[in-house]
Every structure is written in structure tokens, then in C-alpha cells.
């Protein structure tokens, strides 16, 4: 970590919708690591606000935001299904604005997410998919106890290149 940074991490509320969409759209093209590309997220601020309201009250879905000077610079999420047979599985996603990489914020956000998941009465398995070449993200997941379950060969295509994807999980 190069220096300390003043950052607040908290659960997202509907009023964050505009900034959340802005960050998702901006970070979609900052790296080749996101599934989203230049096409963007493609939903309106109103739809996003509705989703955030429903997520806020969910037992197996959560979104956390990281704020620096009131600006959303990071998003970490758990997505769980409403189907009873798979409601115990939470899919993890995380992104930090590239300008704020390397300050420990990715780790901090994942730790907050894991605390929330531990307290959830529904979740018992967390899983995620990460490109094999994304060594920075894989390092954080491994550090926090995620295990490699499988390599999904040609799991994603970026700029015409077929890339392997790691399936990682953590039982909680
Ligand atoms: C992955 C991501 C969230 C990490 O955020 P961050 O704030 O930079 O993370 P941190 O500062 O907490 O930690 C970075 C860690 O990676 C390590 N690291 C840095 N570069 C690395 C590399 N090339 N290979 C392995 N580890 C690396 C650092 O040493 C640090 O580890 P440490 O805390 O044990 O010293 C951020 O890079 C990001 O948003 N990437 C784009 C989106 C993405 O890839 N999301 C995950 C998709 S599954």
C-alpha cells in the first residue's frame, strides 16, 4: 500500500444509483477484466434505484459502495437467487476505479462483504469467476480463503482473445 486514503465503505442505498451506474460504465473499459464491455450496463437510474432498494432488504443479496469525498469509487456485491434450491449460493463481484487501486480498498470491501455474508441466515457458499490472468484479484480472493475449484477453458472472450476463467469458492 503506497499511502493511506480516507474512504467510507457502507451498504448501497437507492440514492447511490446514479453514481453506481456511472462507475460500472466507466470501469467497464478501464481493464479487460470485466464481463461488461463498452456496451455498458444498459439500465436506467430509476431501475437501478429499485434494484438497490430490493437488495437492501434481501437476505442473500448485498451491494457495498466505497466512497472517497462522497464519490463512489468502488462497488462490491453478492448476488443470491430467489430459487429455494440455490438460494444459499452467493455470486461475488467487485470493482474499484483504477485510480484507487493499491490502497487496500479491494481487500477492505471484500472483508466487509464476507462479514455481511457470514451474518446472512441464508448463504452457505460464496463463489466467483475471475480471469486466470487477473492475478491481482486472484491474490485477494486466495488471501481471504477462496479456493480454486475449476478452470473454465475459454470462459471469456476479450478483444478476440479466448481466455481461461477460474471458478473460485468459499464455504461459510
Ligand atoms: C481486483 C481489484 C478490486 C483490487 O483492488 P485494490 O484496491 O487494488 O486491491 P488491494 O489494494 O486491496 O490489494 C491488492 C493486492 O494485490 C497484490 N497485487 C498487486 N498486483 C498484483 C499482481 N500483479 N499479482 C498478484 N498480486 C498483486 C497487492 O500486493 C495486494 O496484496 P496484499 O494486500 O496482500 O499486499 C481491482 O484491481 C479492480 O477493480 N480490478 C478490476 C475489476 C476486477 O478485476 N474485478 C474482479 C473480477 S472477478
Describe the structure.
The chain is globular. Helix content is 27%, strand content 34%. Strands 1-2-3-4-5-7-6 form a seven-stranded mixed β-sheet, with helices on both faces. It has one domain (8-128): Gcn5-related N-acetyltransferase (GNAT) (Aminopeptidase), CATH 3.40.630. It is an alpha+beta fold. Bound molecules: coenzyme A. The site of coenzyme A has 22 residues, from strand 4, helix 3, strand 5 and helix 4.
Offer a quick outline of the entry.
The chain is α+β, with helices and mostly antiparallel strands and 172 residues long. The protein is built from four helices and seven strands. A hairpin with a 2-residue loop joins strand 6 and strand 7.
Task: Assign an overall shape.
Answer: globular
How many domains?
1
Low-confidence stretches: none
Euclidean distance between termini CA atoms: 28 Å
Keywords:
globular; 172 residues; 7-stranded mixed beta sheet; Aminopeptidase; binds coenzyme A
List the helices and strands and how they pair.
Elements: E1 8-11, H1 17-27, H2 45-56, E2 62-68, E3 71-80, E4 89-96, H3 105-119, E5 125-131, H4 135-143, E6 147-158, E7 161-171
Parallel strand pairs: 4-5
Antiparallel strand pairs: 1-2, 2-3, 3-4, 5-7, 6-7
The structure holds coenzyme A.
Residues 31, 33-34, 94-96, 101-107, 128, 130, 134-137, 139-140, 143 line the site of coenzyme A (COA).
